[in-house]
Amino acid sequence: LSTTLSLTVFINLDLVLISLHLWSGLWSARVAAEYSTLSEPDYEFSDYRGKWCMDDHGFVINIGEVYYPSRMGCPCTCTVNGPVCVRPKCPRIHPRCTRIRYKACCPVCEALTTVCVYGGKTYMLLEEFRVSRCERCRCEANGEVYCRISDCPATHCVNPVYEPDHCCPICRTGPNCFAGSRVIPAGKHVNIDDRTVCYCTYWDGTWHTHPQATCEERSQPKDLGTLERLPLCFYL
To answer: What does the entry list under GO cellular component (predicted)?
Structure first.
C-alpha cells in the first residue's frame, strides 16, 4: 500500500511540473507574439546596432563618419559592425623633451626650452641667481625655477647688524655678551660697579659665547684704617 501511495505522489508531482512548463511556454510565446507586433518607435529604447555609433560623451555618429571617441583617443570609423579604431603612426618624441602633452591620439612634445623666465627676466639652464638678499634660485633643466631661503649661521655677537647686500646679519664687533643691558667684550673681566665684575663665558670651549655674562661679586680690599692702628714692629 505504501509503495502504491508513493508512486501516486510522484506521478502527480510530475504532472504538476509538466503543466507548469507548458503554461510557461505558452505565456512566453504570447508575450513574444505581442511585442513582435510593435513597431520600433513603440520600444522604450531604440536598437542602435548597425545604424550608428556613440562616443564617450553620448554623441551619436553616423555610419561612415570618422570621430574621436574621447579627447585623448585615436580616430575611429563608425561601421555597421561598430567602431573600428586604428592608431596612426605617431612622430617620435625627442629624447630630451622635458614636457609632453597628449593631444588627441599622439603625444606632442612642447617646444624644447633652453631658458627659464622668472620675474620677467630670462635665465639660462642650470644658472643660479638671487632674487632677494635671502632668496637664491636655480634654473633647472626642465625649465622650472626652484628657490630656497638662505640658512644663516649663528652669530658670535649679541648686537649683529644687517647690511643692504647681505642676507644674514653680521657682527661689527665681538665676540661679546650682555651684562644686563650693557654689551661687554669677551675675554675680559669688566667691572660693572664697585661690587660686581662680569665676563663672557663660552659654550663648550668654542668661540661662541653665552648671550648673558657671568657676574660675580668683587673681593673687597681690607680696611686701611685698621692697618694704621696696628703697632709697627721693627726688627734689628
So the answer is: AMPA glutamate receptor complex; extracellular space; synapse
